[in-house]
Design brief:
alpha+beta, five-stranded mixed β-sheet, 4 helices, 34% helix, binds flavin-adenine dinucleotide
Length: 149
């Protein structure tokens, strides 16, 4: 089946607690593992950036559920592409540790030293997610491990 990578940004309706994000992650990992979806979730200062990869049907269905989720708004597709391989084969959903969004990286990808994923171009979103994927290669856990921020 054809592999798709979808990257979107969104904004939490209110500042979420760690436990709220953990709950989103737990449901995501469970459902994604069943559907064969993998990816990355970044949450910082009310902003989400998420990468979903997998078969086209399951990625689209997952995205449609996410779109209806009342916990966030301004859900915007940044990039949607057919791809040859996954960047996150070991993660049904991985949350990025906050240190990964360091000053240097923020300035490389954003106009100011602020995580504003909704402003990323398709190329910028894809480059940032790819860079984060490359970094986690050595730290890949057995699937299902919950990553705390
Ligand atoms: P149900 O569990 O039947 O819930 C019904 C409705 O209530 C849905 O609209 C649901 O979104 C909403 N809801 C559920 N819990 C809460 C809550 N605590 N507070 C308010 N509303 C709630 N799901 C995935 O499967 N894979 C992902 O990768 C994924 N990533 C996500 C990323 C973000 C940023 C967010 C906000 C959500 C994500 N989700 C993901 C969760 C997804 O939006 C759905 O909640 C989940 O897939 C369950 O869908 P459901 O239709 O079975 O909803």
């Amino acid at each position: 089946m054809m592999l798709i990578r979808l990257i979107y940004s969104s904004r939490a309706l209110e500042q979420l607690r760690d436990t709220d994000v953990d709950q989103i992650l737990r449901v995501s990992m469970e459902r994604n593992a069943k559907a064969g979806v993998t990816g990355l979730l970044v949450y910082s200062a009310r902003e989400f950036l998420q990468c979903l990869e997998g078969g086209r049907d399951v990625v689209n269905a997952t995205y449609q559920r996410i779109l209806r989720d009342p916990r966030h708004a301004e859900v915007t597709i940044l990039d949607y592409a057919e791809v040859a391989q996954r960047w996150f084969p070991d993660w049904s959903m991985r949350q990025l540790p906050p240190l990964a969004l360091n000053r240097r990286r923020l300035l490389r990808y954003f106009p100011r030293e602020l995580f504003t994923p909704g402003r990323l171009s398709a190329a910028g979103a894809s480059a940032l997610v790819h860079e984060l994927a490359e970094e986690q290669v050595d730290t890949a856990p057995s699937s299902g491990t919950l990553q705390r921020r």
